[in-house]
Amino acid sequence: MEKKLVAYFSAEGHTGKVAKSVAKQAGAELFEIAPSEPYTAADINWKNPLSRCNKEKFGKKDVPFASEVENFGEFDVVYIGFPIWYYTAPNVVITFIKQHDWSGKKIALFATSGGSDIAKTAEKISPLFVGGEVVSSKLFKPSDSPTTVKEWLEDMAE
What we know:
This protein is of the alpha/beta class. It has one domain (4-157): Rossmann fold (3-Layer(aba) Sandwich), CATH 3.40.50.360. Helix content is 30%, strand content 20%. It has five helices and five strands. It has helices at residues 14-26, 52-58, 91-98, 119-125, 146-157, and strands at 4-8, 29-32, 77-83, 106-112, 133-140. A five-stranded parallel beta sheet has the order 2-1-3-4-5, with helices on one face. Helix 1 (14-26) packs across helix 5. The protein is globular, with a radius of gyration of 15 Å.
């Protein structure tokens, strides 16, 4: 039986809600990719060119995360969840991806967004999963129900 992990970053709670639903329905362990220095509302105000999220994204900075996944090597399937920032994953998620060995793992990406698409995001970050295989990507909107998560998981199982 495959061992599964849901690793997610959630800035405002939307992605966290989906991540919990994915973990419950997939029978996966849950891990929050939390930045070492938590974000404030001002930090994630993308309309302010001097906000932390903008400085990180445009400065291409690695953002350290607060804790490590125990026994990461034991997982066969890893679901990675995040809000889409500038058509890609937030830097804390990119840092998480770069600091793990993806050899032999199946990776399923999911994101939340009010307007962006995940296709470009998946294309941009898939090369970072060296040795792993991105098998699916799905965008969830705030209005999506747990049934949408169930349908996505069923589609991947086929």
